[in-house]
Amino acid sequence: MQQIHKSRFTLAQKEDLWALFFIAPWLVGFVLFTAGPMLLSFYFSLTRYNIVDPPIFTGFENYVRAFVRDPLFWHSLRVTIYYGALALPLGLIAGFSLSLLLNQKVPGVSVWRTIYFLPSVIAGVAVAIVWSRIFSPQIGILNPFLESNFGIKGPGWFTDPDWAVPGLVIMSLWGVGGGIIIYLAGLQGIPTSLFDAAKVDGANVLQRFRHVTLPMMTPVLFYTLVLGLIGAFQYFTEVYVISGGSGGPQRATLFYNLYLYQNAFKYNEMGYASALAWVLFLVVLALTLLVFRSSVLWVYYEGEVRRR
Q1: By CB count within 10 A, which of 20, 128, 140, 263 is most buried?
Q2: Residue 57: what are its φ and ψ, rounded to 5°?
Q3: What fold is seen in the domain 71-298?
């Protein structure tokens, strides 16, 4: 009689092994290209390293230098926070408002959705070049438009320290189309029965928006808020192109990422740049955790039961 060999692994263990087998390429890539470089950068942040010579271990000297002896560290952080404080709420409001308009059943709405989404897929370098021409006091079209239609003499924008960051904020609204797609998906996922019930109860348009649309959209708003917060602290390409990598005029656009880049690839202070990168990581992590902690106060999840 043929013997039946019992497998050494249970069905659940076999499923776990196959799962590990299929995700192994990702795990290897994560270790080699993400976790490994992160650990190496942390080591470099504790050294004096100029790429050419071997790193010299200095402990936390780079971190002390950033917080105590480097005024440009604080300046670049202030510029980045200033930009984020303007661009993030404006981007959320503009994207959400446009998505409400594009969610209406009007003729040609798919064409309008495409038009608003297209700018978000254009490369940042191309966008920066186009907007630098638009804002240019000499050859740009924005200042003549303001003067001829509103009698406003436009500023120097990217050549004026007071207007450089607001100009970048205006430019950032060009790419709100990416968020519009997410908002549209959230709006179309709201059950129509909720609106019907609100109408039966006598709620008008504003009341339906306040008590139905807005609460149901808070998870989507929370998601875009977190992504926008991280993106604001990673702002680099556009300001690098517009300022030529200098952070001008008068360091008004010296964003944190740009200052980090300058230390790494202009001054060859890779150790100090690594320390700046880890400080940035901790700042973004802390702010993200604060947003997550605040979500219990304003984010509504359908079916969630909260303790009073």
Answers
A1: 263
A2: -65, 125
A3: MetI-like fold (1.10.3720)
